[in-house]
Amino acid sequence: MSNLSFSHQEIKAFRSATPGVRQVVHFNNAGAALMPEVVGNKVIEYIQHELNYGGYETAAKYSSEIDTVYSALAKYLNCTPSEIAIMENATVAWGQAYQSIPLEPGDTILTSISEYASNYIPFLQLKKRLGVAVKAIPNDDHGQIDVTALSEMIHDRVKLIAITHVPTNGGLVNPAAKVGAIAREHDIWYLLDACQSVGQMPLNVEELGCDFLSATSRKYLRGPRGVGFLYVSQDKVSQIEPAVLDLQGAEWKTKEIYTARKDARKFENWESNLAGVVGLAKAVEYMLELGVERIWARIQHLADYLRSELVKIPGLEVHDLGEVKCGIVSFTSSTKVQPLKAQLHEAGFNVSIIQPSYTLLDMQARDLGKMIRASVHYYNTVEEIDRFVDFLRKI
Ligand SMILES: Cc1ncc(COP(=O)(O)O)c(C=O)c1O
User: Which residues in the chain show pLDDT less than 50?
Assistant: First the structure.
């Protein structure tokens, strides 16, 4: 057993702390992972308190617990609590970030081939409204961002590099730190979508070299839905303003004057889902207690095993790209995707379907239709994978 492995006892413990594993084999962790019991209970406890004592009064009582979300996320990402802003979800975080960057007609945004629809569509809007150019960085032979090609695409009108770390449609982990080194070298704004990498792997914003990192709670962090966050580097925060500032982000001083906060929280809205926030805080603390390196090692081990078993099934094709692969496994089979998912669901296996339009550039480039996405987490087991593979083999 390597020092990154969890013991049988530990596996038993975190599985028994996850009520969902007693109902289903959950391979939809890239959709929304199963919450640990402590996380779900915290959300319920918070809402119960609101029910009895009122929303504002509950927020006051829980204020120090609400604050732990900033310190816990900062510990995970190697930044300061003042560099974290709580958002509704990753899409809002991404939007808040790119809209704050002063772009002008003729500027260029560089993004990735495997970009998520909700990241790319707003750039097409910017192209239409503002006249910016939007270019996708080509992939290398591993199917990940080609950093040499990226270097060659840099010119003085490139104002933003905005890419996804782990795309929605497969196991690829893009070389985000190498992209960050290029962005820093040329002093270009760098926005990293870490929506699907947070909670799976160690993340260090210093090493990644990003100015912004956007993410959600419900996926590999195992937090509740309806909450996410944005990291904004302290070095850059004073140079930008969110597209919309409210009284959380700024103070109204006189008839004509407001002053914006000096930290990342100027990107927040005053109103937020605080039950979700305390749940997210718990989820991050829970993950840090288990150890992110160990979580990452187990996820990779389980996903590698799943891929190695799936490729043995005739008619089934695995489509994951990249030199480094994560817990997301995408595949097609000779059976149609929709009925296959329904059959799996019936048999107690949760997976999701990837539509080509979610990551259009990549899916068109690879001529792929709908795929099944089976995304594993550390609380899954080899035995669950064996049952899943057996079931697929039989049908
Ligand atoms: C890569 C990627 N980025 C962003 C998002 C959007 O996240 P959210 O639904 O929290 O806004 C998703 C959601 O699936 C995603 O897969």
Answer: none
Rama region for 255: left / alpha / beta (φ>0; ψ in -120 to 50; rest): alpha
pLDDT tens digits for range 32-60: 999 999 999 999 999 999 999 999 999 99
Going by C-beta distance under 8 Å and a sequence separation of 6 or more, which residues neighbour residue 128?
A: none
Closest by CA position to 77, among listed 166, 195, 202? 202
As a whole number of Å, the CA-based R_g of the chain is 21
Rounded to whole angstroms, how far apart are CA atoms 54 and 165?
A: 40
Q: How far is CA 228 from CA 117, 183, 279, 385, in A?
A: 18, 25, 11, 30
pLDDT at site 299: 98
30 CA from centroid of ligand 1 (Å): 9
Assess if CATH 3.90.1150.10 describes domain 8-34+291-394. Answer: yes
Which regions of the chain does DSSP assign to beta strands (E)?
25-26, 84-87, 108-112, 133-137, 158-164, 189-193, 212-216, 228-232, 250-252, 258-260, 316-318, 328-333, 349-350, 352-354, 371-375
Assigned CATH for 41-289: 3.40.640.10
Are the C-beta atoms of 260 and 238 separated by less than 8 Å? no
H or E element in which residue 344 lies: helix 337-346
Q: 352 alpha carbon to ligand 1 midpoint, in Å?
A: 14
What digits encode the pLDDT tens for the residues 370-379? Answer: 999 999 999 9
For residues 395 and 335, is the Cβ–Cβ distance under 8 A? yes
From residue 187, alpha-carbon distances to 119, 153, 156 in Å are 22, 14, 10
- 197 CB near ligand 1 (under 6 Å): no
CA of 119 to the centre of ligand 1 (A): 8
* Ligand 1 touching residue 196 (CB < 6 A): yes
**Domain extents in the chain:** 8-34+291-394, 41-289
Of 118, 192, 217, 371, the residue with max ligand 1 atoms within 8 A of its CB, to mutate for a pocket test, comes to 118
Measure the CA–CA gap between 363 and 358, rounded to whole angstroms.
9
pLDDT (0 to 100) of residue 335 = 86
Residue closest via CA to ligand 1's atom 7 equals 90
